[in-house]
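Researcher: Go.
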Amino acid sequence: PLKQTSVYRFGIWLCVVNLHSNTNSESYQDRLSRLEGDKESLILQVSVLTDQVEAQGVKISDLQTSLVEHQLKLSSTEEMLQQELLHRTSLESQKLGLMGEVSYLKLKLADMEGKQGHGAERQHKAEGLLKELRILKDKVEHLEDQKLEYEKKLKATKVMERFDLNIPFSQWSKEQVCGWLDDYGLSQYVSLSRQWIENGQTLLAATPQDFEKEMGMKNPLHRKKMQLALKAFTTKVFEKSSELDHIWVTRWLDDIGLPQYKDQFHEARVDGRMIQYLTVNDLLTLKVTSQLHHLSIKCAIHVLHANKFNPNCLRRRPGEENQPSPSEVVQWSNHRVMEWLRAVDLAEYAPNLRGSGVHGGLIILEPRFSSETLALLLNIPPQKTLLRRHLATAFSALVGSQATQEKREYGNATGHVPLTTTAKVKPKKLGFTQFSHLRKRKPDESDYICPIDSAALTANGVSRFPSSTHRGLSPSLDRPAERKEQVGIQVQSNGAKQ
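Model: Structure:
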Protein backbone atom coordinates (compact mmCIF):
# COMPACT_ATOMS: atom_id res chain seq x y z
CA PRO A 1 0.00 0.00 0.00
CA LEU A 2 2.84 2.44 0.69
CA LYS A 3 4.37 1.90 -2.75
CA GLN A 4 1.03 2.29 -4.44
CA THR A 5 0.49 5.57 -2.63
CA SER A 6 3.92 6.83 -3.69
CA VAL A 7 3.33 5.92 -7.32
CA TYR A 8 -0.06 7.60 -7.21
CA ARG A 9 1.45 10.79 -5.81
CA PHE A 10 4.23 10.76 -8.36
CA GLY A 11 1.67 10.51 -11.15
CA ILE A 12 -0.29 13.41 -9.79
CA TRP A 13 2.89 15.51 -9.51
CA LEU A 14 3.86 14.68 -13.08
CA CYS A 15 0.43 15.79 -14.36
CA VAL A 16 0.73 19.10 -12.51
CA VAL A 17 4.22 19.72 -13.95
CA ASN A 18 3.00 19.02 -17.48
CA LEU A 19 0.05 21.36 -16.95
CA HIS A 20 2.31 24.16 -15.73
CA SER A 21 4.70 23.59 -18.58
CA ASN A 22 1.94 23.92 -21.18
CA THR A 23 0.62 27.08 -19.50
CA ASN A 24 4.07 28.73 -19.40
CA SER A 25 4.65 27.86 -23.06
CA GLU A 26 1.42 29.53 -24.11
CA SER A 27 2.22 32.64 -21.97
CA TYR A 28 5.67 33.02 -23.58
CA GLN A 29 4.19 32.79 -27.07
CA ASP A 30 1.64 35.52 -26.29
CA ARG A 31 4.36 37.78 -24.93
CA LEU A 32 6.52 37.10 -27.95
CA SER A 33 3.63 38.00 -30.27
CA ARG A 34 2.99 41.22 -28.37
CA LEU A 35 6.66 42.12 -28.44
CA GLU A 36 6.77 41.56 -32.20
CA GLY A 37 3.75 43.87 -32.63
CA ASP A 38 5.34 46.52 -30.43
CA LYS A 39 8.55 46.22 -32.40
CA GLU A 40 6.76 46.83 -35.71
CA SER A 41 4.87 49.79 -34.19
CA LEU A 42 8.12 51.31 -32.91
CA ILE A 43 9.78 50.84 -36.30
CA LEU A 44 6.86 52.71 -37.93
CA GLN A 45 7.06 55.53 -35.37
CA VAL A 46 10.81 55.82 -35.88
CA SER A 47 10.25 56.08 -39.64
CA VAL A 48 7.64 58.85 -39.22
CA LEU A 49 9.84 60.76 -36.77
CA THR A 50 12.80 60.44 -39.14
CA ASP A 51 10.74 62.01 -41.94
CA GLN A 52 9.62 64.82 -39.64
CA VAL A 53 13.19 65.52 -38.53
CA GLU A 54 14.30 65.70 -42.15
CA ALA A 55 11.45 68.16 -42.96
CA GLN A 56 12.33 70.29 -39.93
CA GLY A 57 15.94 70.26 -41.03
CA VAL A 58 14.94 71.67 -44.42
CA LYS A 59 12.84 74.38 -42.72
CA ILE A 60 15.71 75.27 -40.40
CA SER A 61 18.00 75.57 -43.39
CA ASP A 62 15.51 77.90 -45.14
CA LEU A 63 15.10 80.00 -42.00
CA GLN A 64 18.86 80.27 -41.61
CA THR A 65 19.12 81.48 -45.22
CA SER A 66 16.31 83.99 -44.62
CA LEU A 67 17.99 85.13 -41.40
CA VAL A 68 21.23 85.78 -43.27
CA GLU A 69 19.33 87.82 -45.87
CA HIS A 70 17.59 89.89 -43.19
CA GLN A 71 20.88 90.43 -41.37
CA LEU A 72 22.35 91.77 -44.62
CA LYS A 73 19.33 94.07 -45.03
CA LEU A 74 19.68 95.24 -41.45
CA SER A 75 23.37 95.98 -41.98
CA SER A 76 22.51 97.94 -45.13
CA THR A 77 19.80 99.85 -43.27
CA GLU A 78 22.15 100.71 -40.41
CA GLU A 79 24.74 101.93 -42.90
CA MET A 80 22.13 104.09 -44.62
CA LEU A 81 21.05 105.43 -41.23
CA GLN A 82 24.61 106.44 -40.43
CA GLN A 83 24.91 108.21 -43.79
CA GLU A 84 21.67 110.09 -43.18
CA LEU A 85 22.87 111.17 -39.74
CA LEU A 86 26.14 112.43 -41.25
CA HIS A 87 24.25 114.34 -43.95
CA ARG A 88 21.95 115.83 -41.34
CA THR A 89 24.89 116.96 -39.20
CA SER A 90 26.51 118.53 -42.26
CA LEU A 91 23.32 120.36 -43.16
CA GLU A 92 22.94 121.65 -39.61
CA SER A 93 26.49 122.98 -39.72
CA GLN A 94 25.89 124.69 -43.06
CA LYS A 95 22.63 126.16 -41.78
CA LEU A 96 24.32 127.57 -38.68
CA GLY A 97 27.05 129.09 -40.85
CA LEU A 98 24.55 130.70 -43.18
CA MET A 99 22.48 131.98 -40.26
CA GLY A 100 25.62 133.55 -38.88
CA GLU A 101 26.24 135.26 -42.21
CA VAL A 102 22.64 136.47 -42.30
CA SER A 103 22.98 137.92 -38.79
CA TYR A 104 26.20 139.66 -39.77
CA LEU A 105 24.60 141.16 -42.87
CA LYS A 106 21.60 142.31 -40.87
CA LEU A 107 23.87 144.04 -38.37
CA LYS A 108 25.85 145.60 -41.19
CA LEU A 109 22.67 146.77 -42.88
CA ALA A 110 21.32 148.22 -39.62
CA ASP A 111 24.63 150.02 -39.09
CA MET A 112 24.47 151.52 -42.55
CA GLU A 113 20.88 152.62 -42.06
CA GLY A 114 21.80 154.24 -38.72
CA LYS A 115 24.43 156.41 -40.28
CA GLN A 116 23.43 159.74 -41.68
CA GLY A 117 23.55 160.51 -45.34
CA HIS A 118 21.65 158.77 -48.05
CA GLY A 119 24.02 159.11 -50.93
CA ALA A 120 23.78 157.03 -54.08
CA GLU A 121 26.80 154.97 -53.14
CA ARG A 122 25.39 153.97 -49.76
CA GLN A 123 22.05 153.18 -51.30
CA HIS A 124 23.76 151.02 -53.89
CA LYS A 125 25.64 149.18 -51.14
CA ALA A 126 22.42 148.69 -49.19
CA GLU A 127 20.73 147.24 -52.26
CA GLY A 128 23.70 144.94 -52.73
CA LEU A 129 23.45 143.78 -49.14
CA LEU A 130 19.72 143.19 -49.53
CA LYS A 131 20.41 141.14 -52.63
CA GLU A 132 23.01 139.09 -50.76
CA LEU A 133 20.54 138.69 -47.92
CA ARG A 134 17.89 137.33 -50.30
CA ILE A 135 20.42 134.91 -51.78
CA LEU A 136 21.34 133.67 -48.31
CA LYS A 137 17.66 133.30 -47.43
CA ASP A 138 17.24 131.18 -50.57
CA LYS A 139 20.15 129.03 -49.47
CA VAL A 140 18.69 128.64 -45.98
CA GLU A 141 15.32 127.64 -47.45
CA HIS A 142 17.07 125.19 -49.76
CA LEU A 143 18.89 123.70 -46.78
CA GLU A 144 15.59 123.50 -44.89
CA ASP A 145 14.09 121.57 -47.79
CA GLN A 146 17.05 119.22 -47.83
CA LYS A 147 16.78 118.82 -44.06
CA LEU A 148 13.12 117.88 -44.38
CA GLU A 149 13.94 115.35 -47.08
CA TYR A 150 16.64 113.77 -44.92
CA GLU A 151 14.30 113.73 -41.92
CA LYS A 152 11.73 111.88 -44.02
CA LYS A 153 14.36 109.39 -45.13
CA LEU A 154 15.54 109.03 -41.54
CA LYS A 155 11.99 108.37 -40.34
CA ALA A 156 11.47 105.84 -43.13
CA THR A 157 14.75 104.17 -42.15
CA LYS A 158 13.63 103.95 -38.53
CA VAL A 159 10.37 102.38 -39.57
CA MET A 160 12.23 99.93 -41.80
CA GLU A 161 14.59 99.06 -38.98
CA ARG A 162 11.72 98.49 -36.57
CA PHE A 163 9.76 96.39 -39.12
CA ASP A 164 12.75 94.52 -41.87
CA LEU A 165 9.86 91.94 -42.02
CA ASN A 166 6.39 92.47 -43.83
CA ILE A 167 4.06 91.99 -40.87
CA PRO A 168 0.39 93.06 -41.12
CA PHE A 169 -0.53 95.89 -38.78
CA SER A 170 -2.97 93.63 -36.95
CA GLN A 171 -0.04 91.47 -35.85
CA TRP A 172 2.19 94.31 -34.66
CA SER A 173 3.22 94.02 -31.04
CA LYS A 174 2.37 96.57 -28.37
CA GLU A 175 5.86 98.08 -28.58
CA GLN A 176 5.71 98.36 -32.36
CA VAL A 177 2.34 100.12 -32.23
CA CYS A 178 3.57 102.53 -29.55
CA GLY A 179 6.69 103.23 -31.59
CA TRP A 180 4.52 103.98 -34.61
CA LEU A 181 2.35 106.39 -32.56
CA ASP A 182 5.50 108.21 -31.51
CA ASP A 183 6.76 108.51 -35.10
CA TYR A 184 3.28 109.56 -36.25
CA GLY A 185 3.28 112.65 -34.01
CA LEU A 186 0.90 111.24 -31.38
CA SER A 187 3.46 110.54 -28.66
CA GLN A 188 1.24 112.08 -25.96
CA TYR A 189 -1.02 109.02 -26.19
CA VAL A 190 1.70 106.37 -25.86
CA SER A 191 1.46 106.08 -22.06
CA LEU A 192 -2.27 105.24 -21.98
CA SER A 193 -1.94 103.11 -25.11
CA ARG A 194 0.51 100.77 -23.36
CA GLN A 195 -2.16 100.02 -20.77
CA TRP A 196 -4.88 99.35 -23.34
CA ILE A 197 -3.35 98.02 -26.57
CA GLU A 198 -2.51 94.35 -26.89
CA ASN A 199 -1.47 94.46 -30.56
CA GLY A 200 -2.32 96.27 -33.80
CA GLN A 201 -5.70 94.56 -34.01
CA THR A 202 -6.79 96.52 -30.91
CA LEU A 203 -6.57 99.77 -32.85
CA LEU A 204 -8.04 98.33 -36.04
CA ALA A 205 -11.14 97.15 -34.16
CA ALA A 206 -11.52 100.35 -32.13
CA THR A 207 -14.03 103.15 -32.69
CA PRO A 208 -13.45 106.92 -32.28
CA GLN A 209 -15.23 106.63 -28.96
CA ASP A 210 -12.68 103.99 -27.90
CA PHE A 211 -9.83 106.35 -28.83
CA GLU A 212 -11.36 109.03 -26.64
CA LYS A 213 -12.15 106.73 -23.72
CA GLU A 214 -9.11 104.45 -23.63
CA MET A 215 -6.39 106.76 -24.97
CA GLY A 216 -7.71 110.10 -23.72
CA MET A 217 -7.85 111.40 -27.31
CA LYS A 218 -10.17 114.40 -26.87
CA ASN A 219 -9.10 116.30 -30.01
CA PRO A 220 -11.43 115.26 -32.88
CA LEU A 221 -8.71 115.97 -35.43
CA HIS A 222 -6.35 113.58 -33.66
CA ARG A 223 -9.04 110.92 -33.89
CA LYS A 224 -9.49 111.68 -37.58
CA LYS A 225 -5.73 111.44 -38.13
CA MET A 226 -5.76 108.03 -36.45
CA GLN A 227 -8.74 106.81 -38.47
CA LEU A 228 -7.19 107.85 -41.79
CA ALA A 229 -3.94 106.06 -40.95
CA LEU A 230 -5.69 102.88 -39.86
CA LYS A 231 -7.84 102.95 -42.98
CA ALA A 232 -4.66 103.11 -45.08
CA PHE A 233 -3.30 100.08 -43.20
CA THR A 234 -6.53 98.19 -43.84
CA THR A 235 -7.02 99.06 -47.52
CA LYS A 236 -3.27 98.97 -48.27
CA VAL A 237 -3.77 101.93 -50.64
CA PHE A 238 -0.74 104.20 -50.84
CA GLU A 239 -1.43 107.94 -51.09
CA LYS A 240 1.30 110.43 -51.94
CA SER A 241 -0.15 112.86 -49.41
CA SER A 242 0.78 110.46 -46.59
CA GLU A 243 4.47 111.33 -47.12
CA LEU A 244 3.87 114.94 -45.95
CA ASP A 245 4.04 115.21 -42.15
CA HIS A 246 2.63 117.92 -39.88
CA ILE A 247 5.94 119.82 -39.90
CA TRP A 248 5.67 120.22 -43.66
CA VAL A 249 2.08 121.48 -43.31
CA THR A 250 3.21 124.38 -41.10
CA ARG A 251 5.67 125.44 -43.83
CA TRP A 252 2.92 125.05 -46.40
CA LEU A 253 0.79 127.52 -44.41
CA ASP A 254 3.66 130.00 -44.70
CA ASP A 255 3.76 129.46 -48.44
CA ILE A 256 0.04 130.11 -48.96
CA GLY A 257 0.09 133.21 -46.77
CA LEU A 258 -1.67 131.90 -43.66
CA PRO A 259 1.06 131.65 -41.00
CA GLN A 260 -1.34 132.81 -38.28
CA TYR A 261 -2.87 129.31 -38.20
CA LYS A 262 0.40 127.42 -37.77
CA ASP A 263 -0.05 126.83 -34.02
CA GLN A 264 -3.57 125.40 -34.42
CA PHE A 265 -2.54 123.11 -37.29
CA HIS A 266 0.56 121.99 -35.40
CA GLU A 267 -1.36 121.20 -32.21
CA ALA A 268 -3.90 119.20 -34.24
CA ARG A 269 -0.99 117.38 -35.97
CA VAL A 270 -2.54 118.08 -39.38
CA ASP A 271 -0.46 116.25 -42.00
CA GLY A 272 -0.68 115.86 -45.77
CA ARG A 273 -3.24 113.05 -45.63
CA MET A 274 -5.50 115.16 -43.41
CA ILE A 275 -5.09 118.14 -45.78
CA GLN A 276 -6.43 115.92 -48.56
CA TYR A 277 -9.53 115.05 -46.52
CA LEU A 278 -10.15 118.40 -44.77
CA THR A 279 -13.77 119.42 -44.31
CA VAL A 280 -15.33 122.79 -43.58
CA ASN A 281 -16.02 121.75 -40.00
CA ASP A 282 -12.37 120.72 -39.63
CA LEU A 283 -11.31 124.24 -40.60
CA LEU A 284 -13.79 125.73 -38.16
CA THR A 285 -12.32 123.47 -35.44
CA LEU A 286 -8.93 124.93 -36.39
CA LYS A 287 -10.42 128.42 -35.87
CA VAL A 288 -10.35 129.28 -39.58
CA THR A 289 -13.57 131.29 -39.96
CA SER A 290 -12.75 133.72 -42.78
CA GLN A 291 -14.48 132.89 -46.06
CA LEU A 292 -11.47 134.22 -47.98
CA HIS A 293 -9.13 131.95 -46.02
CA HIS A 294 -11.40 128.96 -46.68
CA LEU A 295 -11.15 129.68 -50.40
CA SER A 296 -7.39 130.16 -50.09
CA ILE A 297 -6.96 126.73 -48.50
CA LYS A 298 -9.37 125.17 -51.00
CA CYS A 299 -7.41 126.48 -53.99
CA ALA A 300 -4.08 125.54 -52.37
CA ILE A 301 -5.28 121.95 -51.85
CA HIS A 302 -6.43 121.92 -55.48
CA VAL A 303 -2.90 122.86 -56.58
CA LEU A 304 -1.52 120.03 -54.41
CA HIS A 305 -3.94 117.57 -56.03
CA ALA A 306 -2.96 118.76 -59.50
CA ASN A 307 0.75 118.30 -58.67
CA LYS A 308 0.22 114.89 -57.02
CA PHE A 309 1.13 116.31 -53.62
CA ASN A 310 4.65 117.20 -54.66
CA PRO A 311 6.04 118.92 -51.53
CA ASN A 312 8.05 121.40 -53.62
CA CYS A 313 5.39 122.35 -56.16
CA LEU A 314 5.02 125.97 -54.96
CA ARG A 315 7.48 128.55 -56.27
CA ARG A 316 8.85 130.93 -53.66
CA ARG A 317 11.30 132.97 -55.74
CA PRO A 318 11.26 134.61 -59.18
CA GLY A 319 12.52 132.47 -62.02
CA GLU A 320 13.93 133.42 -65.37
CA GLU A 321 10.52 133.75 -67.03
CA ASN A 322 9.78 137.18 -68.51
CA GLN A 323 6.02 136.77 -68.81
CA PRO A 324 4.81 133.84 -66.70
CA SER A 325 1.86 131.82 -67.97
CA PRO A 326 -1.24 131.13 -65.82
CA SER A 327 -0.08 127.54 -65.33
CA GLU A 328 3.09 128.95 -63.73
CA VAL A 329 1.35 131.68 -61.73
CA VAL A 330 -1.02 129.10 -60.19
CA GLN A 331 2.01 127.64 -58.36
CA TRP A 332 3.19 130.94 -56.90
CA SER A 333 3.54 131.16 -53.14
CA ASN A 334 2.47 134.19 -51.12
CA HIS A 335 6.05 135.45 -51.06
CA ARG A 336 6.33 135.09 -54.84
CA VAL A 337 3.20 137.24 -55.27
CA MET A 338 4.84 139.87 -53.05
CA GLU A 339 7.92 139.76 -55.29
CA TRP A 340 5.65 140.38 -58.27
CA LEU A 341 4.18 143.44 -56.54
CA ARG A 342 7.69 144.80 -56.11
CA ALA A 343 8.38 144.16 -59.78
CA VAL A 344 5.31 146.22 -60.83
CA ASP A 345 6.32 149.19 -58.63
CA LEU A 346 3.96 148.41 -55.73
CA ALA A 347 6.67 147.46 -53.24
CA GLU A 348 5.30 149.70 -50.45
CA TYR A 349 2.04 147.71 -50.41
CA ALA A 350 3.61 144.23 -50.66
CA PRO A 351 3.98 143.68 -46.87
CA ASN A 352 0.18 144.01 -46.52
CA LEU A 353 -0.19 140.57 -48.12
CA ARG A 354 1.33 138.81 -45.10
CA GLY A 355 -1.38 136.74 -43.47
CA SER A 356 -3.85 137.47 -46.28
CA GLY A 357 -3.96 133.97 -47.76
CA VAL A 358 -3.20 135.30 -51.25
CA HIS A 359 -1.19 132.95 -53.46
CA GLY A 360 -1.11 132.06 -57.14
CA GLY A 361 -3.73 129.34 -56.83
CA LEU A 362 -6.26 131.74 -55.28
CA ILE A 363 -5.55 134.42 -57.90
CA ILE A 364 -5.98 132.09 -60.88
CA LEU A 365 -8.53 129.53 -59.70
CA GLU A 366 -11.07 131.68 -57.84
CA PRO A 367 -13.29 133.64 -60.30
CA ARG A 368 -14.39 136.10 -57.62
CA PHE A 369 -10.80 137.12 -56.86
CA SER A 370 -10.23 140.27 -58.93
CA SER A 371 -7.94 143.29 -58.96
CA GLU A 372 -10.48 145.04 -56.72
CA THR A 373 -10.12 142.26 -54.15
CA LEU A 374 -6.34 142.57 -54.30
CA ALA A 375 -6.53 146.37 -53.95
CA LEU A 376 -8.71 145.91 -50.88
CA LEU A 377 -6.22 143.49 -49.32
CA LEU A 378 -3.31 145.82 -50.12
CA ASN A 379 -5.11 148.72 -48.41
CA ILE A 380 -4.87 150.94 -51.47
CA PRO A 381 -7.30 153.82 -50.80
CA PRO A 382 -10.25 154.09 -53.24
CA GLN A 383 -9.36 157.69 -54.02
CA LYS A 384 -6.04 156.62 -55.53
CA THR A 385 -7.69 155.78 -58.85
CA LEU A 386 -4.51 155.92 -60.93
CA LEU A 387 -2.77 153.48 -58.61
CA ARG A 388 -5.75 151.13 -58.67
CA ARG A 389 -5.88 151.36 -62.46
CA HIS A 390 -2.17 150.51 -62.63
CA LEU A 391 -2.81 147.48 -60.38
CA ALA A 392 -5.75 146.38 -62.56
CA THR A 393 -3.60 146.54 -65.69
CA ALA A 394 -0.77 144.56 -64.10
CA PHE A 395 -3.27 142.03 -62.67
CA SER A 396 -4.88 141.45 -66.09
CA ALA A 397 -1.46 140.91 -67.66
CA LEU A 398 -0.60 138.43 -64.90
CA VAL A 399 -3.70 136.20 -65.10
CA GLY A 400 -4.11 136.43 -68.90
CA SER A 401 -6.93 137.63 -71.12
CA GLN A 402 -9.05 134.49 -70.80
CA ALA A 403 -9.05 134.51 -66.99
CA THR A 404 -9.75 138.24 -67.00
CA GLN A 405 -12.77 137.67 -69.24
CA GLU A 406 -14.05 134.85 -67.03
CA LYS A 407 -13.70 136.91 -63.87
CA ARG A 408 -15.51 139.82 -65.53
CA GLU A 409 -18.39 137.63 -66.70
CA TYR A 410 -18.69 136.01 -63.30
CA GLY A 411 -18.71 139.40 -61.62
CA ASN A 412 -21.48 140.63 -63.92
CA ALA A 413 -23.67 137.55 -63.38
CA THR A 414 -27.05 137.93 -61.66
CA GLY A 415 -26.92 137.31 -57.93
CA HIS A 416 -23.14 137.75 -57.76
CA VAL A 417 -21.83 138.50 -54.27
CA PRO A 418 -18.40 140.19 -54.26
CA LEU A 419 -15.59 138.57 -52.34
CA THR A 420 -14.82 140.52 -49.18
CA THR A 421 -12.31 140.26 -46.37
CA THR A 422 -14.99 140.34 -43.65
CA ALA A 423 -17.28 137.46 -44.71
CA LYS A 424 -17.36 134.66 -42.14
CA VAL A 425 -18.14 130.97 -42.41
CA LYS A 426 -20.53 129.33 -39.96
CA PRO A 427 -21.63 125.69 -39.66
CA LYS A 428 -24.90 124.93 -41.39
CA LYS A 429 -27.81 124.62 -38.98
CA LEU A 430 -29.28 121.15 -39.20
CA GLY A 431 -33.05 120.60 -39.18
CA PHE A 432 -34.69 118.01 -36.98
CA THR A 433 -34.92 115.38 -39.73
CA GLN A 434 -31.27 115.91 -40.68
CA PHE A 435 -30.21 115.68 -37.06
CA SER A 436 -32.06 112.40 -36.58
CA HIS A 437 -30.15 110.85 -39.47
CA LEU A 438 -26.81 112.40 -38.56
CA ARG A 439 -25.46 109.25 -36.88
CA LYS A 440 -26.37 107.09 -39.87
CA ARG A 441 -24.84 109.44 -42.39
CA LYS A 442 -21.50 108.44 -43.90
CA PRO A 443 -19.05 111.10 -45.15
CA ASP A 444 -18.67 111.38 -48.88
CA GLU A 445 -16.55 113.45 -51.23
CA SER A 446 -18.89 116.45 -51.04
CA ASP A 447 -17.94 116.89 -47.36
CA TYR A 448 -14.34 117.74 -48.22
CA ILE A 449 -13.38 121.36 -48.68
CA CYS A 450 -11.73 120.50 -51.98
CA PRO A 451 -13.37 117.45 -53.63
CA ILE A 452 -11.23 116.82 -56.67
CA ASP A 453 -12.14 114.69 -59.66
CA SER A 454 -8.83 113.24 -60.77
CA ALA A 455 -10.09 113.05 -64.34
CA ALA A 456 -10.48 116.83 -64.35
CA LEU A 457 -6.78 117.50 -63.78
CA THR A 458 -4.52 118.31 -66.69
CA ALA A 459 -0.81 117.92 -67.11
CA ASN A 460 0.00 121.59 -66.44
CA GLY A 461 -1.48 121.47 -62.97
CA VAL A 462 -4.73 123.32 -63.76
CA SER A 463 -8.14 121.72 -63.87
CA ARG A 464 -10.85 121.75 -66.51
CA PHE A 465 -14.10 123.59 -65.83
CA PRO A 466 -16.32 122.91 -68.89
CA SER A 467 -19.24 125.08 -67.77
CA SER A 468 -17.07 128.19 -67.91
CA THR A 469 -16.26 130.20 -71.02
CA HIS A 470 -12.61 130.09 -69.99
CA ARG A 471 -11.65 126.44 -69.89
CA GLY A 472 -8.46 125.32 -68.26
CA LEU A 473 -8.26 127.79 -65.39
CA SER A 474 -11.13 127.33 -62.92
CA PRO A 475 -11.50 124.42 -60.50
CA SER A 476 -14.74 122.58 -60.00
CA LEU A 477 -15.67 124.66 -56.95
CA ASP A 478 -19.45 124.25 -57.35
CA ARG A 479 -20.10 127.91 -58.18
CA PRO A 480 -23.93 127.93 -58.25
CA ALA A 481 -24.14 126.34 -54.81
CA GLU A 482 -21.55 128.78 -53.51
CA ARG A 483 -23.94 131.70 -53.80
CA LYS A 484 -26.40 130.21 -51.29
CA GLU A 485 -24.30 127.86 -49.21
CA GLN A 486 -20.89 126.24 -49.48
CA VAL A 487 -20.93 122.50 -48.90
CA GLY A 488 -22.88 122.55 -45.69
CA ILE A 489 -21.97 126.08 -44.55
CA GLN A 490 -23.69 129.42 -44.48
CA VAL A 491 -21.80 132.54 -45.39
CA GLN A 492 -22.72 135.82 -43.79
CA SER A 493 -21.19 139.04 -45.08
CA ASN A 494 -21.69 142.56 -43.86
CA GLY A 495 -24.73 144.12 -45.48
CA ALA A 496 -25.26 141.17 -47.86
CA LYS A 497 -28.14 138.70 -47.62
CA GLN A 498 -27.52 135.27 -49.11
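Model: The first helix runs from residue 2 to 114.
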